Amino acid sequence: VQLVESGGGLVQPGGSLRLSCVASGFTFARYDMSWYRQAPGKERELVARISSAFGISSYADSVKGRFTISRDNAENTAYLQMNSLKPEDTAVYYCNAVRFPSNHWGQGTQVTVSS
Predict the structure, then answer these.
(1) Which of 5, 20, 21, 72 could make an S-S bridge to 78, C-beta 3.0–4.6 Å?
(2) Is omega for the bond preceding 87 within 30 degrees of 0, making it cis?
(3) Phi, psi of 54 (to 5 degrees)
(4) By percentage, how much of the chain surpasses pLDDT 90?
(5) Considering only CA atoms, which of 68, 65, 59, 71 is closest in space to residue 97?
(6) What is the 3-state secondary structure (H, E, C) of the chain?
(7) Is residue 7 within 8 Å of residue 99, measured between CB atoms?
(8) How far apart are CA 24 and CA 65, in angstroms?
(9) Which residues contact 114 (CB under 8 A, 6 or more apart)?
């Protein structure tokens, strides 16, 4: 089982990034997919989730209207489109796949928003 994130980097405030999470070793379409983030000195928090069935998405209040989660089951990939980025979005972003009782994590990708 493997989740590999990519797409992080340094961006100026107001900029955009798209994170990707490529999955392997399990039946991706059957898993709910989420993005979490963890800033230095803070707990890991849920950013966005998309369900396995019907692709229903939900978001943390802090990113609503700016971030969009999506998935491509044919490509075993989940995405997080991040627009209007703010310095407080700086964190390591982690991909997560859940289907009880399985719970898989990626290694994380750093996003830094700074001028």
Answers:
(1) 21
(2) no
(3) 70, -5
(4) 98
(5) 71
(6) CEEEEECCEEECCCCCEEEEEEEECCCHHHCEEEEEEECCCCCCEEEEEECCCCCCEEECCCCCCCEEEEEECCCCEEEEEECCCCHHHCEEEEEEEEECCEEEECCCEEEEECC
(7) no
(8) 30
(9) 10, 12, 13, 87, 90
Q: Indicate the residue type of 50.
A: I
- Find out whether 23 and 76 touch, Cβ atoms under 8 Å: yes
Q: Does residue 62 surpass a pLDDT of 90?
A: yes
Rg of the chain over all Cα atoms, to the nearest angstrom: 13
User: Which amino acid makes up residue 28?
Assistant: F
Q: Which residue has the tokens 């978001």?
A: 59
Residue 79's beta-bridge partner residues?
20, 70
- CB contact at 8 A, 57 and 33: no
Between CA 44 and CA 31 the distance in angstroms is 20
Q: Report the pLDDT value the prediction gives residue 58, as an integer from 0 to 100.
A: 97
